[in-house]
């Protein structure tokens, strides 16, 4: 029984990751520049983390990183390490410093995650010799792409947060009861600050 | 308690990542990587095919409000699908013919492969091709489409696939030569969406819109004379030592279906 539960959990995680990668590929393939710079993988993992408020969500980085590594042009490990460090830092910030879940904090967390991710990514590429300082500073291409990626990923996260937040408020029985009976007490106050 | 659990999660995460990376470099992850690719590449390939395929022409579309029977509508839909398939096959056939002509003209070794799709890098313009070390493909070899149009170079090779950095990627740079009176030389750079830039063209040389740009041949891996694109805009500012040109690539880099690697 215990093993069945674990197998079901692994299948669920794999299905989530393949779903995220499918959306990521669709965004890359079908959207025009600069919208195809949106990093769906970071936005999705961060979105799940914000809604679950569970640190174990970060384990999604391992399968996501693995699929990124096997279909990317960079040396193996760079994507996973950058993803793990950036999302761990943002996760820690969200759990210990920016504990408010306003739209500004959600947008900011998306921005910070992408900026840290790309910063570590570029540093590791420089260390591994896959990128040179000359190539990095010779044009604005990398900086422009980073700017678009950060803004668009944060926007996607924000839209996901607002839309799902609205749907949760609209259809979850706790909220419906609160609205209809005006039964507002201390035990359910946290629900109103979603 | 929660603090301790968080610390443990970070530690386990780091530990598992290190194990994964070490296992890759020791070669233990090979079968898992192969299974992962065989799981994801069909999806990537299918989505890329949907993106590349030509739109169905007007004559094959059917009007659902017409009084004709459902069977007739279904037949029209089938015809539409078949028409689109014929269109795709015609395009592929033309592309292959161009590449065969180029190969016989230049007497060079080409490995022709299908494009499986885009790689998962967000900010990089790279594609995955259906051929790797087993076909003799190596890193830095140039990749062409059609009758000698440069589309990129190989940056990573596995046994069964290779990853190609396209010429419109921000990390791609190559010497380019304008086909004009002076044969002006410059550096072709990507990173500007769909267009390219030819930089460092001497200011005194005359460049016109519509001039073709080919590879300059300054790199050992890439032969001279492969078509890159045409000049679309010229930027010649009085206070700058060089002029630059915005180029339109000779092929649509987002809709590549068949490419060839120049294996020399």
Descriptive account of the structure:
The complex is a heterodimer of chains A (194) and B (264). Chain A has 194 residues and is mostly helical. Chain A has one domain (2-182). Chain A is built from nine helices and no strands. Chain A has helices at 2-30, 40-52, 61-70, 78-96, 103-128, 133-137, 141-171, 173-181, 189-192. In chain A, α2 (40-52) packs across α5 (103-128). The relative contact order of chain A is 0.10. Residues 56-64 of chain B have low confidence and may be disordered. Chain B has 264 residues and is α+β, with helices and mostly antiparallel strands. Chain B is globular, with a radius of gyration of 23 Å. Chain B contains three helices and twelve strands. In chain B, β6 (173-178) and β7 form a beta hairpin. In chain B, the strands form two sheets. In chain B, strands 1-2-5-4-3-12 form a six-stranded antiparallel beta barrel. Chain B has a six-stranded antiparallel barrel with strand order 6-7-8-11-10-9. The interface between A and B is large, with 52 and 48 residues.
Q: If helices are DSSP runs of H or I spanning 4 or more residues, what is the number of helices of chain B?
A: 3
Query: Main interface pair?
Result: A-B, 52 and 48 residues
Chain oligomer state: heterodimer
Determine the strand fraction of chain A and express it as a percent band: under 5%
Strand content of chain B: 25-35%
Major beta sheet summary of chain A:
none
Query: In terms of per-residue confidence, which ranges of chain A show pLDDT below 50 for 5 or more consecutive residues?
Result: none
**Count of helical stretches of chain A:** 9
> Separation of termini of chain B?
63 Å
Mean model confidence by pLDDT of chain B: 83
Element order, helices and strands of chain B?
HHHEEEEEEEEEEEE
């Amino acid at each position: 029984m215990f093993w069945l539960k674990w197998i079901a959990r692994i299948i669920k995680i794999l299905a989530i990751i393949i779903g995220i990668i499918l959306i990521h590929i669709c965004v890359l393939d079908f959207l025009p520049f600069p919208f195809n710079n949106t990093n769906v993988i970071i936005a999705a993992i961060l979105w799940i983390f914000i809604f679950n408020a569970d640190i174990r969500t970060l384990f999604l980085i391992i399968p996501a990183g693995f699929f990124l590594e096997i279909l990317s042009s960079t040396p193996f490990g760079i994507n996973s390490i950058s993803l793990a460090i950036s999302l761990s830092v943002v996760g820690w910030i969200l759990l210990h410093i920016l504990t408010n879940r306003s739209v500004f904090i959600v947008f900011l967390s998306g921005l910070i995650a992408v900026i840290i991710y790309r910063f570590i990514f570029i540093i590791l590429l420089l260390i591994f010799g896959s990128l040179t300082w000359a190539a990095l500073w010779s044009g604005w291409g990398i900086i422009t792409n980073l700017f678009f990626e950060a803004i668009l990923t944060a926007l996607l996260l924000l839209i996901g947060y607002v839309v799902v937040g609205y749907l949760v408020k609209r259809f979850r029985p706790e909220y419906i009861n609160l609205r209809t009976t005006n039964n507002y007490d201390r035990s359910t106050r946290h629900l109103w600050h979603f | 308690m929660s603090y301790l659990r968080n610390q443990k999660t970070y530690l386990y995460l780091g530990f598992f990542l290190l194990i994964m990376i070490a296992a890759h470099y020791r070669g233990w992850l090979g079968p898992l990587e192969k299974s992962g690719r065989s799981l994801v590449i069909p999806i990537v390939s299918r989505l890329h095919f949907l993106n590349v395929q030509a739109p169905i022409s007007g004559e094959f579309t059917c009007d659902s409000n017409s009084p004709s029977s459902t069977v007739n509508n279904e037949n029209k839909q089938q015809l539409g699908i078949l028409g689109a398939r014929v269109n795709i096959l015609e395009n592929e056939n033309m592309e292959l013919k161009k590449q065969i002509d180029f190969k016989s003209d230049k007497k060079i070794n080409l490995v022709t492969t299908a494009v499986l799709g885009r790689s998962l890098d967000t900010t990089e313009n790279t594609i995955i091709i259906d051929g790797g070390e087993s076909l003799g493909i190596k890193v830095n070899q140039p990749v062409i489409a059609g009758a000698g149009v440069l589309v990129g170079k190989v940056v990573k090779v596995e046994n069964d696939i290779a990853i190609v950095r396209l010429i419109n990627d921000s990390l791609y740079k190559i010497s380019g030569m304008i086909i004009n009176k002076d044969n002006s030389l410059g550096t072709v750079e990507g990173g500007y969406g769909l267009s390219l830039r030819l930089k460092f063209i001497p200011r005194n040389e005359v460049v016109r819109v519509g001039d073709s740009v080919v590879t300059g041949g300054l790199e050992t891996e890439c032969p001279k004379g492969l078509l890159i694109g045409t000049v679309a805009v010229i930027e010649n500012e009085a206070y700058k030592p060089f002029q630059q040109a915005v180029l339109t690539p000779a092929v649509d880099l987002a809709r590549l279906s068949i490419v060839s690697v120049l294996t020399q």
